[in-house]
Amino acid sequence: MKLSRRTTVTATALTALTLGGTVAATAPAAAAPAAATAAYNGVCGPGYQVIDATPVGRVGTVYVTWNGSTGKNCAVTIRNTPGAPVYMAVELNALVGHETTPDRDNGQYTTYAGPVYVDGRGLCIEWGGVIGNAGGYDSGHCG
């Protein structure tokens, strides 16, 4: 069963959420629906399967992937329509009690931000992305 919390947020709120958000537990998902993976560009590398996709406003998506061989999760924020460079960010965090160290990538990008990786074995993860002023955040996939 998949329990998940999905929220669309602004870039400012995304920063605040990563500093003190809570997590909803989930069972690991096998894979995201084909429609959700169609725009994923495979940038995380071989062996990574899309397990979730979170909208970033109406301008893009954060894709979360899992590699069962390595026990790592990967995330990437991808624009729906590449264009002139715009501020983009992706963040992926494995939750270990109150101590967390997210992996982040941000900057002025034309197509995507990331990839970023965390060791998700036995942990819950949270992820988020920003494209311009739009943001999206989600959590779950406890393993």
Strand order, biggest sheet?
1-9-8-5-6
Number of strands: 9
Summarize the helix and strand pattern as letters.
Answer: EHHEEEEEEEE
The number of distinct helices, counting runs of at least 4 residues, comes to 2
CATH topology call: Immunoglobulin-like
Separation, N- and C-terminal Cα atoms = 13 Å
Taken from the alpha-carbon principal axes, the silhouette is globular
Structural class: mainly beta
Major sheet, described briefly?
5 strands, antiparallel
Give the helix proportion (percent range).
Answer: under 10%
The overall pLDDT, averaged over residues, is 79
Number of individual domains: 1
Quick structural summary:
By secondary structure, the chain is mostly beta strands.
Write the layout of secondary structure elements.
Elements (H helix, E strand, L loop, with lengths): L4 E6 H10 L13 H4 L11 E8 L3 E8 L4 E8 L6 E10 L7 E7 L2 E8 L4 E8 L2 E7 L3
Antiparallel strand pairs: 1-9, 2-3, 3-4, 4-7, 5-6, 5-8, 8-9
InterPro entries: TAT_signal
Keywords: Signal
Protein name: Spore-associated protein A
Features:
10% helix, globular, 143 residues, Immunoglobulin-like, 9 strands, 4-stranded antiparallel β-sheet, disordered N terminus, 5-stranded antiparallel β-sheet, mainly beta
Polypeptide structure, described:
The structure is a single chain. The chain is mainly β and 143 residues long. The protein has one domain (5-140): Immunoglobulin-like (Sandwich). The protein has helices at 11-20, 34-37, and strands at 5-10, 49-56, 60-67, 72-79, 86-95, 103-109, 112-119, 124-131, 134-140. The strands form two sheets. The protein has a five-stranded antiparallel β-sheet. The protein has a four-stranded antiparallel β-sheet with strand order 2-3-4-7, with no helix packed on it. The longest helix is centred in the N-terminal third of the chain and has 10 residues, at 11-20. InterPro entries: TAT_signal.
